[in-house]
């Protein structure tokens, strides 16, 4: 059985497999109905197409198929995946992963392996996945974390108080410091954050999650930031 969101692709693949002697039970377009269709027809092998192998919930149909029809071998048909895509497919119960641009001979080999109870995934896909897992790409900068590291603990508390709408007098009283010292702290915070006003500082802190991180850091230190 071939199931894919793109009906033309599903029907073309089904036709190609029929020409090579395979009996294809059905070719259906809506992936949302894949589980029901496969469960009702119980094919030996199901080729399940997906456009986003790393997206949450993509392989929920595979989980249901394997729960209700464990004898059905499910091969995922999709784009070049990242390691999470391959891992998610196998974790859901798929027995293989075939690229959308694979030649029909490669698809047929995967089907044969699936029927034999073997894992069906191209060696180059596994090699690429293992390579990325062993040498992960650097994650994009976390702006909130970067900004938090620029501030001293006392400046972080000042920023939290600024975000709460406290003026210089209230900040000074709450921190037990002179108003002039509180004013200096505020100016240093604005300078380090590269903003021109308290309102901008509060907006930046909220947008980047800096306030949440500041609270987490205070809790990890055993109490409020002082």
From TrEMBL:
InterPro entries: CheY-like_superfamily, Sig_transdc_resp-reg_C-effctor, Sig_transdc_resp-reg_receiver, Tscrpt_reg_LuxR_C
Every HTH luxR-type domain range: 144-209
Location of the Response regulatory domain: 1-115
CDD domains linked to this entry: LuxR_C_like (cd06170)
One example of a Gene Ontology biological process annotation: regulation of DNA-templated transcription
Molecular function in Gene Ontology: DNA binding
UniProt keyword list: DNA-binding, Transcription, Transcription regulation
PROSITE patterns hit by this protein: HTH_LUXR_2 (PS50043), RESPONSE_REGULATORY (PS50110)
Protein's name in the database: Transcriptional regulator
Source organism (scientific name): Streptomyces longwoodensis
């Amino acid at each position: 059985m071939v199931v894919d969101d793109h009906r033309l692709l599903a029907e073309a693949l089904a036709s190609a497999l029929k020409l090579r002697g395979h009996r294809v039970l059905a070719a259906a377009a809506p992936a949302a109905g894949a589980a029901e269709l496969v469960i009702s027809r119980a094919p030996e092998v199901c080729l399940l197409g997906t456009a986003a192998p790393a997206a949450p919930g993509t392989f929920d149909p595979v989980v249901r198929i394997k729960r209700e029809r464990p004898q059905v071998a499910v091969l995922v048909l999709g784009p070049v995946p990242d390691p999470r895509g391959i891992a998610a497919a196998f974790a859901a119960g798929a027995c293989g992963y075939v690229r959308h641009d694979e030649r029909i001979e490669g698809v047929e080999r995967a089907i044969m392996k699936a029927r034999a109870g073997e894992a069906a995934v191209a060696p180059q896909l596994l090699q690429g996945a293992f390579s990325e897992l062993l040498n992960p790409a650097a994650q994009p900068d976390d702006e909130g974390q970067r900004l938090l590291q620029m501030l001293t603990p006392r400046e972080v508390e000042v920023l939290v108080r600024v975000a709460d709408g406290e003026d210089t007098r209230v900040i000074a009283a709450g921190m037990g410091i002179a108003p002039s010292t509180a004013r200096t702290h505020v100016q240093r915070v604005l300078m380090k954050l590269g903003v021109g006003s308290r309102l901008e500082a509060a907006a930046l802190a909220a947008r980047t999650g800096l306030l949440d991180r500041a609270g987490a850091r205070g809790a990890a230190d055993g109490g409020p930031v002082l």
